[in-house]
Structures are given as structure tokens and as C-alpha cells.
Amino acid sequence: MTQAPKIGLVSLGCPKALVDSERIMTTLRAQGYSFSRDYAGADIVLVNTCGFLDSAKQESLEAIGEALNENGRVIVTGCLGVEESLIRETHPNVLAITGPHQYESVVSAVHDHLPPVPNKFVDLVPESGLKLTPRHYAYLKISEGCNNRCSFCIIPQIRGDLASRPAAGILSEAEGLIRSGVKELLVISQDTSAYGLDLKYATSKYRGRDVKAKFYDLAKELGELGAWVRLHYVYPYPHVDPVMELMAEGLVLPYLDIPFQHASPNVLKAMRRPAHQEKTLNRILDWKRQVPDLTVRSNFIVGFPGETEEDFEMLLDFIEEAEIDRAGCFKYEPVTGATANELEGIVPDEVKEERFAQLMEVAQNVSFHQLQKKVGRTIEVIVDDVRPEENRAIARSKWDAPEIDGQVIVDNATGIKIGDIVSVTVTDNDEYDLFARPATH
Ligand code: SF4
After folding, report:
1. Which CATH class is domain 137-373?
2. Residue 180 class from Cβ within 10 Å (0-12 exposed, 13-18 middle, 19+ buried)?
3. Which of 114, 153, 243, 395 has minimal Cβ neighbours within 10 Å of its Cβ?
């Protein structure tokens, strides 16, 4: 029997790029290709690149270089793929270059350079496709592109305007994932709250019913499938308000990932961010009153051009007043092609460093106090890893997204398995994590 051609895959960038990698893998696997975990075992290497920040571009170029050195036969795809001349300048020998979401182009480039071998013994692809995340959670991409034009971002140039998937397709995918063992769905896009706008909220038939391509309707339908549903990249628009009911009912996790980026009206204006800042603080406080367990995760940029000490203080106050439970922070860096590069008022690197350290300290404080409130409570956690030698399980609460948030360290974890959802009692906390033991009934 002829051996299946082997592909090596290097996946860089955000969860959205990871979903693209999964789709490419699924398609190729269905066509009889297999995958190699190392360069040496691969007949060809696919590098799925990120082109968001200049540092990410650099990382992508280095990854392409490494794949060329180690293997020699390389196809490039993903966000950096739109800058073909930049890639060719550094790496003239790559076999082919395709852009983001061009699944067919990547697959046909693979066919050109490594034709598939027909093999009737090839396994069927699992119903859920092939996933790069552990079996118990999965990212669910509901749209591509973005209608906003934030001045520091080139995603709309790379990925185009908002293009939402019809609700029925998303729900069928979610159902398939749950059937194959997924217990947590992480809903992603560039702007989740804008879902369906481009489709004029058109309905599609799912299980004989008409479901609107609308943020609330989709969240409710997903919630009713029975898995944990976590919403990422949501902006605080008024139409997000009704989703609080779904959280209060337990259909959707009490968790929102809202990339605020800043809190000062001047900086937000220069960033050309969506949503009105004046109302944001009140809206968050109101949401937290309705859903006392709501955890808000956010990301912030310090050192944006023109950011004054006063703007920065305003940001720190916002993090404290809104009790931003989880905060990530970037030091601003220019992105080639972004309009923010023309702004005046460059903030010196040492000021950026200082502000970064100060913000992280404030954020850690808030996080510590928010987590402290959970001590003594009995909560459900999902298990990501087990360490039998320490009798420990590494889990996450409903307030923690994988990779970016904290963990719940469970001791006395005999019998607990990866993917289990178990009840634990929280015994302690630090700035990011909770410590717990199995709940006694
Ligand atoms: S919302 Fe702004 S930062 Fe996010 S993808 Fe759209 S343009 Fe970029």
C-alpha cells in the first residue's frame, strides 16, 4: 500500500488562525494526507502566518525560515500571505503563498507540490473535523472580517469587511462538536456583537426552525445545545444587554471578553474605536448588578500616540471602577499600513514600559480581590490536565478562558480525568489562580 503523503503544519497567531489551520487540516486529512509532528518526517511544511503586528510578521518570517532550513519544501498561508513580496524578498524559495481563509488555494497549492495518493483504506475524518485544541473545548468562528476601522489595526485590509456565517451552519457545526465530546464552545470572530449585520440578520433553517443571524438569537440557540458557551470579542453595544438574561439563566457563561483597548475618550477617538466610552462604565456596572458572577476580560494598549499622563490615569481608574477581572496589556507598536502611524505624540519606550508595569500592577490587584470573593464557594470547573504524581488536576472555572486567563488548581484529585466537569470548593487564591479541592456532597 502506498504511504500517505505527510504534511507538517506550523500554526501561528490568534485563535482565528488556529481555526483556519484546523479547517485546512480537516480538508487535507479527508483527501488522504497525514501529518507529521516534526520537520524531518514531513514531505512538505505549511506555515500558517500572522501579520497583525510588525513583531508577529517578524515571528512569521522566522518560522518560514526555520521550516525552509529544516525541511526545504514550504507553503505559506494566513494573514502575512497578503504580503507576498515581503515574504519573497526574505524567502524566495517558498513553493507557494496564499492569504487568509483561502482554504481552496492552500489545498490546491498542496496538490500541485505534493499530489494526494488515492487510498481506499484512509480513515474517515471524525465528524467534528480535526482539531488542534484538546477534545473538550473548541473554537467556533461565527464571522470573518470587520466593519470597524480602528486606526492601529489592519485586519479589515487583510480580512475584508464583516462576513457572517448563516446561523444554521454555525449551529450544525456546534452540534457536531458537542456530539464528538466538546464540552465548551469558545465563540470567536473579530467583532462578535456585530454578528449578522452584513446578512441583515437573515434567518436560516435549523432543525426545521427559522433562526436569525443575530447576536442574541445565536447566543441563545448555542446555549440551548447544553455545552459551556463563552463569548469572545464582544463590544459593549446596547444590543448586548439582553444576553445578560441568558447568563443569569445559566445558558451562556457569565464571561465577556471585551477588547476595550483604552478608557480615555481622547485616546479612544484617536484609535477610532467603536462604542461610546461615556456610557461604557455604567453599562458594565449595570451588567455586573444583573449578573453578579459576570467576569469581564479585556485587553488594553498603553503608549498609544498622544496618550497623556491624564489619559493613562483615566485608564487605571476605569480598570478599578469597572472591576476588570482579567486584563491583558500591549505596549503600542506601529503596524505597517495602519493609519495610526501618522499620528503625532509618540510615547517614548521607557514611558510605555512604566505604564505597562503600572497597569499590570493595578490589574493584578483587581484580579486578586475579585478572585478572593470566590474563596469558600463551591463551583464547577472543567479539567484541562491531570498530574497523577501530584494528585492534582489543572482546571478552569466558568470565569477562565483557556490560554489567556487563570486556572483552578485542584488538589486531592484522585479519579478526575481530562475533560471532566467537576464540583470543587475554592480554598485559596492568588493574583490569577484559584486553589480548590473536590466538593464533598
Ligand atoms: S474592531 Fe478594530 S481592532 Fe478589532 S479587527 Fe476590527 S478594526 Fe481591528
Report:
1. alpha beta
2. middle
3. 114
Using one digit for the tens of pLDDT, what is the confidence trace for 178-235?
A: 988 899 999 999 999 999 999 999 999 998 899 999 999 999 999 999 999 999 999 9
Question: Domain locations in the chain?
Answer: 6-113, 137-373, 377-438
- pLDDT tens column, 369-427: 999 999 999 999 999 999 999 999 999 999 999 989 999 999 999 999 999 999 999 99
Question: What pLDDT digit, counting tens, does each position of 208-217 carry?
Answer: 899 999 999 9
DSSP letter for each residue of 212-231: ES-HHHHHHHHHTTSSEEEE
Spatial separation of the C-alpha atoms in residues 235 and 48, rounded to whole Å: 28
**CB of 87 sitting under 6 A from ligand 1:** no
Q: Is 329 annotated as contributing to ligand binding?
A: no
- The CATH architecture annotation of domain 377-438 reads Beta Barrel (2.40)
Which residue among 190, 261, 335 has the greatest number of ligand 1 atoms within 8 angstroms of its CB, and so is best to mutate? 190
Mapped onto helix, strand or coil, the DSSP state of residue 312 is: helix
CA distance 262 to 318: 9
Q: Which residues lie below 8 Å from residue 94, measured CB to CB, with a gap of 6+?
A: 64, 68, 74, 75, 76, 87, 88
Cross-strand partners of 141: 188
Question: What is the pTM assigned to this prediction?
Answer: 0.77
